[in-house]
Amino acid sequence: xxxxxxxxxxxxxxxxxxxxxxxxxxxxxxxxxxxxxxxxxxxxxxxxxxxxxxxxxxxxxxxxxxxxxxxxxxxxxxxxxxxxxxxxxxxxxxxxxxxxxxxxxxxxxxxxxxxxxxxxxxxxxxxxxxxxxxxxxxxxxxxxxxxxxxxxxxxxxxxxxxxxxx
Length: 166
Hints:
This protein is α+β, with helices and mostly antiparallel strands.
């Protein structure tokens, strides 16, 4: 503590509460963070994204054009093309397409614009919702910490000065 002060040790229940809330907040940030990537035909490198998909997982590709645009989206597995999607859109239009994985493997998505510019949003929808396991674990740790704190508060002794009235 600064300036020679002292602080009580942090209680285990407070640590559990802090960890539980931190896990819940991290889960909200992980799942709520949606980022659209702007790309244009003048870009030197195409948009690339590598993902590991299990059987049945879906890759959702959303393309929104700011100017008239034309291009293609290619998905490869082990350098072998497994899916191709061409698009031609007018200004302000958008398109979305889905790719469903047929087995567990690493896939690479490459999106190129031949003309125009726009934004790309890629989302993975999992068959097994293992990435949502953070919520029940965080909630369980938080509840356990709150219960432990309630139990600690019951057994705390109260120091008081009693004055007599004479």
